[in-house]
Specification:
Elements: H1 3-19, H2 27-33, H3 44-58
């Protein structure tokens, strides 16, 4: 491969590294980020109960990506 072919790829990688800079969170912003509404899983217990009932209904454990057992439920 020639260097002229690698140049656009290297430039793109360098640009993406420079653009995706991280910065520290200011102390007055930490309160906002600590709210339950900002969590990825705001109610983890509710999710746990929902997965348990879903697994019981489907009579199988494992992936929860596909549903339905042919009986018309879910």
């Amino acid at each position: 491969m020639k260097t002229t072919e690698l140049m656009p790829a290297l430039l793109l990688i360098a640009l993406s590294i420079c653009v995706s800079a991280c910065s520290p969170v200011a102390p007055w912003q930490r309160g906002t980020l600590a709210k339950a509404s900002m969590a990825l899983e705001p109610q983890p217990m509710q999710r746990s109960f929902r997965e348990h009932s879903y697994g019981s209904r489907e009579a199988a454990s494992g992936s929860s990506s596909a549903s339905g057992g042919g009986c018309g439920c879910y």
